[in-house]
Amino acid sequence: MMNDLEKLNRMLTEFYDKMSSWEMSVVKETGYSLAQIHTIEVLGTCGALRMKELAQKLGITTGTLTVQIEKLVRADLIIRCPHPDDRRAIVVTLTEAGKDIYFQHNQLHLDLVRDLMRNIDPEHEQVLLSCFEKMNQEF
Question: Which positions fall inside the HTH marR-type domain (predicted)?
Answer without folding.
Answer: 1-137
